[in-house]
Write a structure and sequence with these properties.
8 strands; single chain; alpha+beta; three-stranded antiparallel β-sheet; elongated; Immunoglobulin-like
Amino acid sequence: MRLKNLAPGFLCGHLSAPKLLRAISASAAILFLAGCDAINPALQYQEAARQLRFSLDRVEPQLELAFPLEQSRLRLRLDVGVDNPTDQRLRTRRVRGDLRLAAQGGDHALGAIGFPEGMDLAPKGRSTLHTEVVLSYADLKSAWGPLTAAATRREPATWSLNGEARFEVLGIEFGVPFRTSKASGR
C-alpha cells in the first residue's frame, strides 16, 4: 500500500507524505536524544532516589528496669537523616529497617524499626525521620547484657540500621536499600 492511496484524513492533519516522514523522523530523533526519561519519567525519580544518603543521626536508648526483670523495657529514640543531593523533590511512602547493636564482641539483632508515615524530601535539602520504639526484655533477652552496658554504662557500641525506603511515582512502586550506623559511648 502506498501513502498516496490512503484516505486524506489519515495523514495527521492532511500532511503530505514527505512532511509526515520528516515529522516522524524528527519525533524519533527527539526521543533518541532525550533518552528513556522522555518515555518513562518515573526513571528520573528512581535515579534521584538512588542518590539519597541516609545517616543514623541519633540513637537515644533508655532502659526502664522493673522487677521482675521480664517486665523491663528498652525505649529507643531514633533520628534518621536523609540528604537529597538532587534537583528532584521526592516523597517516601514508608521507611523500615532492622536495628542491630555491635557491642562486647558480638552483633545483636534488636528488631525491626518502621517509619510508616511518608516524608517529603526537598531538592538539595536534608530531612529527618523521628521515631520512638519500645522493646520488651523478652524481645531483647539475648542482647540484654550488651544493651545495658551501652545504655547505662556508656560502653563503646555501634548501632546500625539496614533498611529500605519505599517510593511510588506515577503508579510505579520501588524501593531503595540503605545502610547506616552510629557509634556511641566513645
